[in-house]
Write a structure and sequence with these properties.
This protein has 77 residues and is mainly alpha-helical. The chain has one domain. The protein is 58% helix and 0% strand. It has four helices and no strands. α1 crosses α3. The radius of gyration is 13 Å and the shape is elongated.
Length: 77
């Protein structure tokens, strides 16, 4: 189910958050500049921080889907 999921993130908040996380991990802080995504939507910094941790293990979006499935199943116990 997870491995057959579409790995294309449509242009929306999800792709902006994922790209911001990867940019920060690479030492590029351009998303905080005036008018950039995290400057306009600072409330997304929490999810960016979480995705930065995820991106340290894998840059493949399928890994994020799999992790989401694991966390969801764990919360249903």
């Amino acid at each position: 189910m997870v491995f057959n999921a579409d790995t294309y993130l449509r242009p929306s908040d999800q792709i902006s958050v994922w790209q911001a996380a990867q940019n920060i991990n690479a030492g590029r802080y351009t998303d905080f500049k005036k008018g950039a995504y995290l400057n306009v939507y600072p409330f997304q910094i929490g999810i960016v921080t979480f995705e930065r941790l995820v991106a340290m293990f894998s840059k493949n979006i399928t890994f994020l889907y799999f992790l989401n499935l694991i966390l969801k199943l764990e919360s249903m116990k």
